[in-house]
Recover the amino acids of this structure.
């Protein structure tokens, strides 16, 4: 590796680490905000869904989506990633949108083994993921373009997570068992 390539690589890794720290801080602040909204306002998440995605309703005035808790107490949503349907568990503690490798493959995303360079700490332990860029993620009428995501090996992630790379680009609030998204 040439000296210039090494410097570019280090610069890219530093930028990635800064972005990860920003998202982690944002996630912590979001959780603290949700805890202050009222009793039962935290969004507790597990790694396995137990029911169908929550219904999505949108308002005619702005791009608003209201998610209702599923029977398992979590917010699940069917979104469109680059035009294809994908089921997600909403996770304010996830810094990125996280896709299972099999789901990414279904979307036409095929990271090479050498792309798995992002170190990720999950409920299943520490693993490596591949950083990818999604053209668009749609939840109801809300569309977020050019969203970074990470791809996990299937054995390291049991569900797709709608994390802060999407959520930080919309306004959201949790109240009385509903999660409101607004763009």
């Amino acid at each position: 590796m040439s000296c210039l390539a090494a410097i570019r690589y280090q610069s890219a890794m530093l930028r990635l680490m800064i972005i990860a720290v920003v998202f982690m801080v944002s996630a912590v602040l979001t959780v603290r905000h949700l805890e202050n909204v009222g009793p039962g306002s935290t969004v507790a998440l597990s790694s396995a869904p137990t029911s169908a995605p929550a219904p999505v309703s949108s308002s005619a005035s702005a791009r608003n989506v209201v998610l209702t808790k599923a029977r398992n107490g979590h917010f699940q949503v069917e979104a469109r990633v680059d035009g294809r349907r994908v089921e997600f568990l909403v996770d304010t503690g996830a810094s990125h949108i996280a896709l299972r490798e099999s789901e990414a493959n279904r979307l036409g995303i095929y990271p090479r083994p050498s792309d798995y360079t992002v170190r990720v700490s999950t409920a299943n332990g520490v693993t490596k993921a591949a950083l990818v860029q999604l053209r668009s993620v749609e939840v109801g009428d809300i569309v977020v373009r050019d969203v970074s995501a990470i791809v996990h090996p299937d054995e390291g992630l049991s569900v797709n997570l709608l994390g802060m790379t999407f959520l930080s680009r919309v306004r959201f609030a949790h109240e009385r068992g509903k999660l409101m998204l607004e763009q």
